[in-house]
Specification:
Strand order of the largest sheet: 1-2-3
Strand content: 5-15%
Helix content: over 70%
Number of strands: 3
Distance between the termini: 36 Å
CATH topology of the largest domain: Alpha-lytic protease prodomain-like
Largest sheet: 3 strands, mixed
CATH superfamily of the largest domain: Cation efflux protein transmembrane domain
Shape: elongated
Number of domains: 2
CATH class of the largest domain: Mainly Alpha
Order of helices and strands: HHHHHHHEEHE
Length: 289
């Protein structure tokens, strides 16, 4: 299975993410210094973490797509899961720090200045983020990369946060100063929700959690449609990086020639790969008396 093309695509997504994050940091940093907005600060801190996480993703992706070797016969795919888990921890840490800042500003609200410029910065940030998400989604559909999926999920929460910050700035311009820290608190909740989802999926992969039940049902249906096989058992599935590992035991009548059973088994593998093209399928043939 050639994954070099997938590796190049996922690395390009990580590089694009770092470039966008760098632009957002510069714009939001100036906007926060001008406006002293808690919600803009929350968004700025989020973007600051984004570039760190994207850098981690870049090196994790390079390692994940390295070919299998003697020490790692199943490849290095779990490097992506480790990167996603680190991303979850970074996001959670920043969220709690921002929560403290938003709480202090809620108790001691402060009038904002230069809010018009901040609104324009957040609008441009929103457009850049949407472009990045579109590219990340395209790359994920082509490669199945967990690191890209995790990064994209986080940027989706950024879109909602950018919209919320714009409303907060508009509200603050009308004297609703409490709306600014309130929106910052909402961003914190969105960040924690994103971190939970990313962390859960990464842990499932690291712990070799079974794939979606539909994978097993699909394999069983293929076996049932083949008259040569009497059934199957011990179906085991897991995922490492963007590769799904599927193994099973096929039951066939002992009157059947082993070479014929193997030929049908190869056809079964081909049918599985049509639906799961990045899968690594292992079949053991069991003659039944």
């Amino acid at each position: 299975m050639d994954t070099s093309g997938d590796g190049r695509l996922t690395q390009s997504a990580a590089i694009f993410s770092m470039c966008v994050a760098a632009c957002l940091i510069l714009m939001k940093g100036f906007a926060w210094l001008d406006s002293d907005s808690s919600s803009v600060l929350a968004s700025f801190a989020d973007s600051s973490l984004d570039i760190i996480v994207s850098l981690i993703n870049f090196f994790a992706i390079r390692l994940a797509f390295a070919p299998a070797d003697k020490e790692h016969p199943f490849g290095h795919g779990k490097a992506e899961s480790l990167a996603a888990l680190m991303q979850s921890a970074f996001i959670s840490g920043s969220a709690f720090v921002l929560l403290l800042h938003a709480g202090e500003r809620m108790v001691n609200p402060k009038e904002l200045v230069a809010w018009e410029g901040a609104i324009w910065v957040m609008a441009v940030s929103l457009i850049l983020t949407l472009i990045l998400i579109a590219y990340q989604r395209w790359v994920y559909l082509r490669t199945g990369s967990l690191a890209v999926k995790a990064d994209s999920a986080h940027y989706v929460s950024d879109v909602l946060a950018n919209i919320a910050v714009i409303f907060a700035l508009i509200g603050a311009s009308s004297g609703l100063f409490w709306l600014d820290p309130l929106i910052a608190g909402v961003i914190v909740i969105a960040l924690l929700h994103s971190a939970y989802g990313i962390g859960k999926e990464a842990l499932n992969m690291l712990m070799d959690h079974a794939l979606d039940p539909e994978v097993e049902l699909f394999v069983k249906q293929l076996v049932a449609d083949n008259d040569m096989f009497l059934g199957c058992h011990d179906i085991k599935t897991r995922q490492s990086g963007n590769v799904q590992f599927i193994q099973l035991h096929l039951d066939f009548n002992n009157d059947c020639l082993l070479i014929d059973a193997h030929e049908e088994g190869e056809k079964l593998v081909a049918d599985i790969l049509k639906k799961y093209p990045r899968a690594d399928v292992l079949i053991h043939h069991d003659p039944i008396h």
